[in-house]
What we know:
The chain is about 50% helix and about 10% strand. The protein is α+β, with helices and mostly antiparallel strands. A hairpin with a 5-residue loop joins strand 6 and strand 7. The protein is globular, with a radius of gyration of 23 Å. Strands 1-2-8-5-3 form a five-stranded mixed sheet, sandwiched between helices. A three-stranded antiparallel sheet has the order 4-10-9. Strands 6-7 form a two-stranded antiparallel sheet. It is built from 19 helices and ten strands.
Amino acid sequence: MCYMMIHIFIAIIFIIFFSLLISLTSKNTPHLLPWNWPLVKLLPTAYLKSHELYDRLTQVLADNNSTILCKTSSYTNIDILVTSDPCNVHHVMNSNPSIYQRGSEFRKALDFLGDAVFIKDLDEWKQGKKFTHGFYKEAEFHNSTPKIIRHTLEKGLIPTLLHMSEKGENRVFDLQEMFSRFMIDATCLMATGFDLASLRVGFPHCPLLEAMDDMGEAVFWRNVLPERVWKLQRWLGMGKEKKMAEACIVLDRVLDGFVVRKKQELTSFNQTGDDNFDHCNRKFEPDFDVLKFYMSSGDGSCSKKFLAANIMTLLFAGRDTSAALLTWFFHLISTNPNSKNVILEELNRNFPPEKHLFADAEELSKLVYLHCALTESLRLFPTAPVIIRDPTAEDVLPSGHRVGKSTKIILCSYAMGRSPEIWGEDCSEFRPERWMSERGGVRHVASHRFLAFGSGLWACPGRELAFTRMKAAAATVLHNFGVEVLEGQRVSPSVSALLTMKHGLKARVSSRWL
């Protein structure tokens, strides 16, 4: 889940489309692309019904043996290979990770992350995993995680939902926004030790959240527009690049405040609080935070710029991916009441009514069916619907397709989640039972067949933490509140870097016994 931003597939479709027009209208260029070329069929969907793009792409791949290689004209000098073949995925992600890199365009689109190691190619990505493993292996980190989750539930999620339930039937709110605020608060506490307290009654304005949203939108357009266009916008200070520049100022100021205040705490033991970070009597000092861990290491290896960039990366990764999945999860169980009832029975069987919140990994491990339901949600709606790699050398994939340095490799995890060859004929159904092992645990599926957390050396190191937080939030909500997802609302995925809901998910809640 650490892949927080990816190239947007729709942009590549239009690049190829214009290349096609040039190729077919030029007298001097041979016609490299026939009109029945598979991706051309996606153009009306991409333009008129973008919310159906990934479903249509899934069908196109199914009709073409799970892999499409499109050769464009010499004007673009770029070939596109789209695949949902697990053998190809294993070849790219597991067997030859040094050949298939993220590439320079990926880094240019995310240049605001600066020294963040998580956007680098393989060698520096390995260093990034060392960055996280450095604190993941600390006992204090694991001891503080349930305390942070408990605090965020007790001071943020539960009071907010209680307020919503007291308002009666007319109180409608967006589940996606609520989970987004819950995740940024928990992530900020883990990363910096400071509580943003963005999840409060009324969903108050939070400059950091707004800045992150503006950055995400700007990154989308950086991948849609030609590089020269968005760089011109940046130079002129207009369009989405203007918002990006303003968001960077906000984020830099907030991150600089985190680093400066943490330095003060470490040098002068200043524990007096700060109005910029402590809100509504929610002051909370975790036993461990990432910023303190690296600033107090004493080896001087982490500069202020390096720390700020990587804390920013943790905030992005920890917020959007988990919040998006929780939203899809509540949508799916609302349309599959039998699965929802099994989850409620599992909660009632393992915990008494007076158990109001869930934060400990050991107690959450009892909720096997809930874990399976979240994983099934991730199969159908992977937060990163496509992953893009650039070959650094010529190669031949297991499917027999030859690729080179001018080829864009697109691994479509969305299509993989709906592949009958991988999941059977019921692949389009929400069925958490497919993840249950014969012994009653969670069944393991090879990462090159279930690409939600990356694979091989590119695997996300935060998988267990993500599941702990998602299970804690889902269990606390379902055990204490009845959730009614509004009928008739338009539920569709956004075509963006992450598979969020385009219009959010509107719901009402009622208290069970609080």
